[in-house]
Design goal:
Number of helices: 5
GO molecular function, one term: palmitoyl-(protein) hydrolase activity
Largest sheet: 7 strands, mixed
Family: Belongs to the AB hydrolase superfamily. AB hydrolase 2 family.
Enzyme class: hydrolase
EC number: 3.1.2.22
Keywords: Acetylation, Cell membrane, Cytoplasm, Endoplasmic reticulum, Fatty acid metabolism, Hydrolase, Lipid metabolism, Membrane, Nucleus
Distance between the termini: 32 Å
Helix content: 25-40%
């Protein structure tokens, strides 16, 4: 998953109960692995959908005093004007695009794939969806922000995902990625893609985590945009 490092563990996968005709690729947050999210998604799964939860490579993270931990890219600071790891973000997005290509090779068209993630993983899923040439079914962005936001043009994007459906969710008590980041991100998204397709949900009292209500909203979004085809 990370460049030429062949020792990266294989993703945690929740297989479809019957023939997989759609897929969800979900990226975990900083310092986590795909296992927890694969369990959460198993709790809301649909029989025709395959859920893929890759593990980020382990790397030193500036924000955490250069301690090594699973991370999709380096995080230098959490303020809106903090310097960003542009090279790392772009490389991570290429790795995610390769995962999407792999599923296309497995017989699932890209427009039957939803990309999602939590926190750093949600940030990467948004960035990837807005920069890829692969037409996706939707994006689930939980407790996150849009990385490299100033690198995007003002106004609507012209790519294949300019009408993509986005479900963005955030806790109103998030101490790590404040709700303001979510609000600013949703405004930016609405200026770039069809605003009618952007849904922003907030959850009262939720911190930097998930809740049952949020997971039910995620399930509803997945079921709507990845309906059974057979």
């Amino acid at each position: 998953m990370c460049g030429n490092n062949m020792s990266a563990p294989l993703p945690a996968i929740v297989p479809a109960a019957r023939k997989a005709t759609a897929a969800v690729i979900f990226l975990h947050g900083l310092g986590d692995t795909g296992h927890g999210w694969s369990e959460a998604l198993a709790g809301i799964k649909s029989p025709h959908v395959k859920y893929i939860c890759p593990h980020a490579p382990v790397m030193p993270v500036s924000l955490n005093m250069n301690m090594s931990m699973p991370s999709w890219f380096d995080i230098i600071g959490l303020s809106p004007d903090a310097q960003e790891d542009e090279t790392g973000i772009k490389q991570a997005a290429e790795n995610v695009k390769a995962l999407i290509d792999q599923e296309v090779k497995n017989g699932i068209p890209s427009n039957r794939i939803i990309l999602g993630g939590f926190s750093q993983g949600g940030a990467l899923s948004l960035y990837t969806a807005l920069t890829t040439h692969q037409k996706l079914a939707g994006v689930v962005a939980l407790s996150c922000w849009l990385p490299l936001r100033t690198s995007f043009p003002q106004g609507p994007i012209s790519g294949v995902n300019k009408d993509i459906a986005v479900l963005q969710c955030h806790g109103d008590c998030d101490p790590l990625v404040p709700l303001m980041f979510g609000s600013l991100t949703v405004e930016k998204l609405k200026s770039m893609i069809n605003p009618a397709n952007v849904t922003f949900r907030t959850y009262s009292g939720m911190m930097h985590s998930s809740c049952i209500e949020e997971m039910m909203d995620v399930k509803q979004f997945i079921d709507k945009h990845l309906p059974p085809v057979d």
